[in-house]
Design goal:
Length: 331
C-alpha cells in the first residue's frame, strides 16, 4: 500500500512539472511577458519585487542573467543576481563581486558590467566614496572589477553607456563636502576617445536643474535620455523625465511624460531591456486594500512585507508607450 501511494505521488509530481511553462526559447519572457504593456506593471512579484528595497535592473545581452540592487536605508547596498539555468530562473543571490562594500547601479553593455561602489580605488585610498567600476565577461566568467577613475574624491553613480562607449552618470561634483550629497547631483558625460575616458562634462540646463537630477539612461545611439529629478513640477517626490538629442547635438528641454508612468512617490532608475522593447524602472508607489474590504492579518503581512509597501519595486512598460524614437541600427 505504501508503494502504491508513492507511485501516485510520483505520478502527480511528473504531471505537475510537465505542465509548467518553459521559457527556453526566450528566457526573459518569464520576467517581461509579451506583449509589452502600455501601463506600468510590477516585475516578477515575489521574486524580484519582493518587499525589500530593490532598484535598477540590467540583463546580460543573452537574457540569461539579471542584476539589480537591494538597499537598506543608506548604510547597505548590495548587487544581487538571478540566472536562467536548466529551464528555470534561480532565486536571487548576492553577486560574486558584491557584499563587502556598498555596491549599486549595475549596467551591462557588450559583455561589460558597469556599477557604482564605495570600495577603495587602490591600497592608499579609503572606502566610502562612490566611484564607477567595470568588469568584463570572458568565457562566461566575470573578471575582477576595475575602477574608471574620473574624480576619485567625489561621488559618481549610476553609469549608463552608449554604443560608442560614451559614459553617462550622475555626480555631486559641485558639493562642498565629501559625504554623498544627493541634493547636489547633476548628470555628466565622459566621452570615450582612443580607448580613454575624457574629463567629465556637465550636461546643459535643458537636463540639469537647480534640483537633484540623477539616474540617467542613455539610448544606445544617444538619441534620447531618460533620467530622474525631484524638481517640484512633477507628479511626486521624483519623476522620470525625457530629453531628446537635437540636430545641433544639443539636448532638448526635458519633459515629464505624465501620470501614466510617474506616480505620487519616487520613480527613478530607468533601464532598457537588451531588445529595447521594455523600459524598466523603480518606483516606491504603494499598493493598498484600504477602503475596499476588511483587512485580514494575511493582508497586513502582504501589504507591509510584500511589494507595494513603499520601498522600491521594479516595474516595466512598453518602450513604445513613451513615443521614443527608434534607435538606429549599429554596424
Amino acid at each position: 500500500m505504501r508503494n502504491f501511494y508513492a507511485i501516485i505521488l510520483l505520478s502527480f509530481l511528473i504531471q505537475t512539472l510537465a505542465g509548467q511553462k518553459r521559457y527556453d526559447d526566450a528566457p526573459q519572457r518569464f520576467l517581461l511577458p509579451e506583449p509589452p504593456p502600455e501601463t506600468p506593471r510590477l516585475m516578477a512579484s515575489g521574486l524580484i519585487s519582493s518587499g525589500l528595497d530593490e532598484s535598477g535592473g540590467t540583463f546580460t545581452d543573452d537574457h540569461l542573467e539579471f542584476f539589480y540592487t537591494v538597499n537598506h536605508r543608506a548604510d547597505l547596498s548590495v548587487i544581487v543576481q538571478i540566472k536562467y539555468r536548466d529551464s528555470f530562473w534561480s532565486y536571487p543571490e548576492t553577486a560574486t563581486f558584491s557584499g563587502i562594500y556598498q555596491d549599486a547601479d549595475p549596467f551591462i553593455k557588450n559583455d561589460k558590467l558597469y556599477f557604482s561602489s564605495t570600495r577603495p580605488i587602490n591600497d592608499k585610498s579609503g572606502s566610502g566614496i562612490w566611484n564607477i567600476w567595470v568588469m568584463e565577461r570572458k568565457d562566461k566568467t566575470w573578471t575582477n572589477p576595475q575602477p574608471i577613475v574620473l574624480s576619485p574624491n567625489k561621488n559618481e553613480k549610476h553609469p549608463t553607456v552608449a554604443d560608442n562607449g560614451n559614459l553617462y552618470f550622475y555626480a555631486d561634483y559641485e558639493s562642498e563636502g565629501v559625504t554623498f550629497d544627493f541634493l547636489n547631483t547633476d548628470i555628466y558625460v565622459s566621452v570615450l576617445e582612443d580607448g580613454l575616458y575624457q574629463p567629465p562634462v556637465k550636461l546643459n540646463e535643458t537636463i540639469n536643474s537647480t534640483y537633484a537630477d540623477y539616474t540617467p539612461l542613455i539610448a544606445p545611439d544617444e538619441s534620447f535620455m531618460i533620467f530622474a529629478s525631484n524638481r517640484p513640477e512633477g507628479q511626486g517626490n521624483s519623476d522620470l523625465y525625457i530629453s531628446f538629442k537635437t540636430g545641433n547635438n544639443q539636448w532638448s528641454e526635458a519633459i515629464n511624460p505624465g501620470a501614466f508612468i510617474n506616480s505620487t512617490e519616487n520613480d527613478h532608475y530607468p533601464s532598457l531591456s537588451p531588445d529595447s522593447l521594455f523600459l524598466m524602472f523603480t518606483s516606491d508607489r504603494r499598493l493598498s486594500l484600504t477602503g475596499q474590504r476588511s483587512i485580514t492579518y494575511s493582508d497586513l503581512k502582504r501589504i507591509i512585507l510584500g511589494p507595494g509597501n513603499g520601498f522600491g519595486d521594479l516595474y516595466y512598460i512598453s518602450k513604445k508607450a513613451l513615443n521614443l524614437p527608434a534607435e538606429k541600427d549599429t554596424p
